[in-house]
Design a protein that fits this description.
- The complex is a heterodimer.
- Helices cover 64% and strands 0% of the residues of chain A.
- Chain A contains 13 helices and no strands.
- Chain B is α/β, with parallel strands linked by helices.
- The radius of gyration of chain B is 24 Å and the shape is globular.
- Chain B has a single domain, classed as Rossmann fold (3-Layer(aba) Sandwich), CATH 3.40.50.150.
- The chains are: A mainly alpha, B alpha/beta.
- The interface between A and B is medium-sized, with 20 and 26 residues.
- Chain A: It is found in: Mitochondrion.
- Chain A: Keywords: Lipid-binding, Mitochondrion, Transit peptide, Ubiquinone biosynthesis.
- Chain A: Pfam families: COQ9.
- Chain A: Its main location: mitochondrion.
Amino acid sequence: MAYLARTLPKRVITPSLSQSIRQTRAIATTTPQSTPTRPAQTVPRTSKPRQLPHRTYHSALHARLPDHSYTNSQTAILTSALAHVPAHGFTATALTLGARDAGFLDVSVQLLPRAEFDLILFWLASRRGLLRGQVEEGGLFRRIAAEKGKDVHELSVEERVMGLILERLRMNAEVKGVWQDALAQMSLLANIPLSLTELHSLASDILTLSGDDAVDATWYTRRLAVSAIYASAEVVMTRDPTPDLVETEAFVERRFEDRKAIADKLTGIGQCAGFGWNTAIGLGRSWGLKI
Amino acid sequence: MSTMSTRSAWRALHYSAKRRAFQPSTPYRCFSCANRAQEQKTDNDRMTHFGFTNVPESEKESRVGAVFSSVAASYDRMNDLMSLGIHRLWKDHFVRSLNPGSCLPAMTADQRGWNILDIAGGTGDIAFRMLDHATNINHDMETRVTISDINANMLAEGRKRSLDTPYYNTSRLDFVEANAEHMPHIPDSSVDLYTVVFGIRNFTDKQAALNEAYRVLKPGGVFACMEFSKVDNPVLDGIYKRWNFSAIPLIGQVVAGDRDSYQYLVESIERFPTQEEFRGMIQKAGFMIPGQGFENLTGGIAAIHKGIKPIVKA
């Protein structure tokens, strides 16, 4: 339960809205006797830094969690090691070379208890951070809109999600040749929980960045759908010989159509069942059943 | 009535006894200066653990020495019996996780091969495994191990065993008799990997040994330690304690003919700090801790602790 709460969607809240939330919170924490027209007393409460190691809930007022939890030395080794990944794959060799480049000894790879898997996790987390950076600073959506000949505001959530998935897949282009090995590593029994957590974080980030703010049951199905599309597209990407990942793009588009078709079918089935049920009840009542 | 009087008499005696004990232990104590804090107790007064008994620090070294001199010959057989052979799995895992030796060609001459210091490794258990791993897995013929032990009998046992290995009388294997708390013959920043396996428990001053490890390691070098630790699971802990205090001294008596040494062994295991405490000691010496900092083996009966000496950017 705590896990679900921790990963609740980070909704896009405008500054004025968050300001009003802050005020309501401040008012709610004051004693009933005090009048709500005394902000001076309540403001310091909210301006206190909230440093909680384990949050059991999500709030738009919290700072964003870091993309990864590696220390400086670990990040130095991992960052240098990423440069060797296209040539050596996600292997201990790449890590050792990275450690040497960062000024460490061969033995210093002991800093990373999960070894190669740490390198894979770091790749995933850092690319996820890059994706977020591209949206927040790089104007990724403007580029996507320009390609489609639209204005940024005309882009639907669906189009944004697809654009982000494709952008994330393109980031993998340089490690395309070694990515199957990484997928194999991630599918090892001991590594599955962390791999799935990372996949979920990516899906959650993509949906949040796209402006998806659903908080009903579709919160789960949407993340599941994005995760499934991304994970399957990754496998397709490793076998895609085209330079600009054209085949992968076509694959992702087909999956989005499938998703839409499935959603339509499910809605149709639901409507049909509801109609049938209502008819049955109406028929029963017309026969004089007490229902 | 009589009970009342005896009780009051007892209370009076008790009270006066307490009062007498309240004599200040130091003759002079000034609250405005630190004279008392500066007073150093002499070495003879400082006590340390020897199993469950307290002994003066100066005596612990010789007592531990006596224990290991008496068990040196039957060391391996006893380890097999006491741990039901599991100690071999632990040691293999320890060496494999450290992956000694470079499989990549060195960039500079001084990087060639690792310089490993195996503390308290008298019988060469770990040293031979590490050399085998470097040679056979990483094809590294340069990595060398210095076995250091405070006990000459254990070193003699290791020398005898090294006759059967390909490293006998080569520059890759070296034996040194030294106290791990003070190793002036080893220069600063000269060691890649410092290992101490089932040894640090017997040290008189563990923190001093950790500080010395920090000194001799190169920046980026690794301190790795395997030691008996605390079991998390209460059920397993109950079985383990029963085995320790009932079976091991008995096995020691029957097989090695020395009950007291093995009684010391189990008591020293009991006295060793918990995983978290020992991790704190490693941190205190200045090491960086990777991840959680320790890895429990067989439910925490043994634990591998690691620390990395940070590099200082110029």
